[in-house]
Design goal:
alpha/beta; TIM Barrel; eight-stranded parallel sheet; 14 helices; binds L-rhamnitol; binds zinc ion
């Protein structure tokens, strides 16, 4: 069947083997926080805050680093291709001791790095500027209180240095992404003062030049959060300006824009001015920016743009969703595979024909080709990709997830 489908695609100028090669070379950075509802392992008992919320109480959440590693291995065994781990600083191995965020060191993450090496995967990293008493008043890097600001500056600085060490040891640059929750629930009297402060703090955080082969800095904007509905210091315009000026990577989270705004449409513009992109592929639903990713129009649009603009070499694809109302391993695997399927669909577009139609003003053909493409047997190519990677095909995913639920997750509560 695959050979036949390959020939069908060849007829419209699509090289299926080349698409599979690109799939194999496009890692997705798996966000550790889907495994334990953004809890981390500091043992502080502090609840998730700063506008982040996870709903649901599906049994079996990872309670330790070992359990999270076990779950990640299970997820990796369901995903075709080679991927990465995206770790938050609060997931360090602190050995039961109180290590505050401004005290983290490489030693706390060596276990993760060793594990990543064993798995043959790269790592990405994030400062954790939330779920902490010093984030409780709603401001971190943009705080007007120097003590609070300096605390978070130190945390972010350390995170970059640890990220660079991860990148060095694993032989693959670590993307260290800064997201802060800073903002106000109600109308601010002075929007500017916090933004000036944030800019200064970021300058301090990023002052030390690190080897780009080891660490890539990214900054992530947001439209609003729970409790910061009226004003978010790190808005899209703020970070787009900052990233352009300082040539850092820019992180675009699919859930962080107005619902009718398209992240896909931003990619070609942003890449004209910033060197690299980090994507947090996610799905916004009403107030929530972090539902499990689906093979939907929004995600397809993003992947189409990455392919059509030749943006894959300059884009780091990460995920950002968390759902505790369903099997967490299922959520991870389903969401990641959906993102991968969207990428494959984009790679199987008859790009040459589409361009030709558009440039000659033949928009009827363009529309017809796009619709035709949806009806082509792309799923045969997807199954081939899964088979070659020795991972479950679509018909087996659910059973694999349920088996793990029975044999591992059910024993956790
Ligand atoms: C929050 C941001 C951020 C976080 C993670 C946990 O709105 O999207 O990326 O979700 O860092
Ligand atoms: Zn995000």
């Amino acid at each position: 069947m695959y050979e036949q489908v390959k020939n069908t695609y060849a007829e419209i100028g699509v090289d299926v083997e080349k698409a599979l090669e690109t799939m194999a070379n496009t890692p997705i950075s798996l966000h550790c926080w889907q495994g334990d509802d953004v809890g981390g392992f500091e043992g502080s008992g502090i609840e998730l805050g700063s506008g982040l919320a996870v709903t649901g109480n599906f049994p079996g959440k990872a309670r330790s680093i070992d359990e999270l590693k076990q779950d990640l291995e299970q997820v990796l065994s369901i995903l075709p291709g080679n991927h990465r781990l995206n770790l938050h600083a609060m997931y360090g191995d602190f050995g039961g001791k109180k290590v505050d965020r401004d005290e983290i060191e490489i030693a706390h993450f060596q276990g993760w790095i060793d594990w990543a090496k064993e798995q043959g995967i790269g790592m990405d990293f994030n400062p954790s500027c939330f779920s902490h008493p010093k984030a409780d008043d709603g401001f971190t890097l943009s705080s007007l209180d120097k003590g609070i600001r300096d605390f978070w500056i130190e945390h972010c600085k350390r995170t970059r240095i640890i990220g660079a060490e991860m990148g060095k040891q694993l032989g693959s640059a670590c993307v260290t992404n800064i997201w802060i929750p800073d903002g106000l629930k109600d109308q601010p009297a002075d929007r500017l003062v916090y933004r000036k402060q944030l800019s200064e703090s970021l300058d301090e955080v990023l002052a030390e030049k690190l080897n780009p082969a080891h660490n890539i800095d990214a900054i992530e904007c947001k439209l609003f959060g729970i409790g910061s509905e009226s004003y978010v210091v790190g808005s899209h315009e703020f970070y787009l300006g900052y990233a352009t000026k300082n040539q850092t990577a820019l992180c675009l989270d699919a859930g962080h824009f107005h619902p009718t705004e398209s992240l896909a449409d931003k990619i070609s513009s942003v890449l004209m001015y910033v060197p690299e992109l980090l994507l947090h592929v996610s799905r916004g639903v009403r107030w929530d920016s972090d539902h499990v990713v689906l093979l939907d129009d929004a995600t397809q649009g993003i992947m189409q743009e990455l392919v059509r603009c030749d943006a894959l070499p300059r884009t780091h694809i990460g995920l950002d969703f968390f759902d505790a109302s369903i099997n967490r391993i299922g959520a991870w695997a389903i969401g990641t595979r959906a993102a991968q399927k969207c990428l494959l669909l984009a790679l199987l577009e008859p790009r040459g024909l589409l361009r030709e139609a558009e440039l000659s003003g033949d928009y009827t053909s363009r529309l017809a080709l796009l619709e035709m493409n949806k009806a082509l047997p792309w799923s045969v190519v997807w199954e081939e990709f899964c088979q070659r990677n020795d991972v479950p095909g679509e018909l087996e995913v659910l059973a694999t997830v349920k088996d793990y639920e029975k044999s591992v997750l059910s024993g956790r509560d």
